[in-house]
Amino acid sequence: EVQLQASGGGLAQPGGSLRLSCVSDGFNYHAIGWFRQAPGKEREFVAAVRSSADGPLYGDSVKARFTISRDNAKKMLYLQMNSLEPADTAVYYCVTGGSRLTSASTAYRYWGQGTQVTVSS
User: Fold this and answer.
1) Strand pairing report for 10-12 and 115-119
2) What is the pLDDT of residue 52?
3) CB contact at 8 A, 58 and 46
4) What does the pLDDT read at residue 81?
5) Which end of the chain is more exposed for a tag (fewer CB within 10 A), N or C?
6) How far apart are CA 2 and CA 27, in angstroms?
7) What span, in angstroms and rounded, lies between the C-alpha atoms of 121 and 109?
8) Which residues of 1-16 are buried (b: 16+ CB within 10 A; e: fewer)?
9) Beta strand 115-119 with 31-37: parallel, antiparallel or unpaired?
10) Helix or strand or coil: residue 4?
11) Cα 106 from Cα 82, distance rounded (Å)
């Protein structure tokens, strides 16, 4: 079973920044990424990345504000979140097991426990 552990969540003010990290032993798969889910809302795609030859994929609501990156040698996935908005408040999940770069949650086989991000003044 592939394990994923996300960290870096917390409280940020609107306009602020946070950096999420995820460590996993399952980053040999092609695509890895982040999803989020706010209370009472459906799960939402945030970002995903496959290889260095492919550009990352972002959800419309985070484009130009969030940056996803991976370090295969360290088995790490990152999400740099800038210009945070209250609407970004959610539990963020790192995922892996994707064979293709996609925003479809069903394409990612393994999910971490999530880390809470709260944006509030």
Assistant:
1) parallel
2) 63
3) yes
4) 98
5) N
6) 9
7) 36
8) eeebebebbeebeeee
9) unpaired
10) strand
11) 27
Backbone phi and psi for residue 88, each to the nearest 5 degrees, phi listed first = -85, -5
Q: Which amino acid is at 102?
A: T
* Contact call for residues 115 and 8 (beta carbons, < 8 A): yes
Question: What one-letter code names the amino acid at 117?
Answer: V
Spell out the SS3 assignment of 18-60. Answer: EEEEEEECCCCCCEEEEEEECCCCCCEEEEEECCCCCCCEECC
Order of strands across the sheet that contains 4-7? 4-7, 18-24, 76-81, 66-71
**pLDDT at position 116:** 98
Per-residue pLDDT of the chain (121 residues; tens, 9 = 90+): 888 999 999 999 999 999 999 998 877 767 899 999 999 999 999 999 987 667 899 999 999 999 999 888 899 999 999 999 999 999 999 999 888 889 999 999 999 999 999 999 9
Tokens of residue 60, six digits: 């419309």
| C-alpha distances out from residue 93 to 7, 47, 50, 86, Å | 10, 11, 17, 18
Q: Nearest-5° angle of CA 56, CA 58, CA 64? A: 100
